[in-house]
Amino acid sequence: MPRRVRSDKRVGKLEEDLGLPPGTVRNKDGRDTRSDKKVGTIRKELEK
Description:
By secondary structure, the chain is mostly helical. Helices cover 35% and strands 0% of the residues. It has two helices and no strands. The longest helix has 9 residues, at 39-47. The protein starts with 10 loop residues before the first helix and ends with a helix.
């Protein structure tokens, strides 16, 4: 089972570490997520 990504990791670094192209992580409305946004913040937004 893969480990969960740390919540204090930033989106830009996450995409870089996983080898994903920039802009892979998206907001609910389909727009790119800012690269300086933290993964924990995205998780909190999805809970709402």
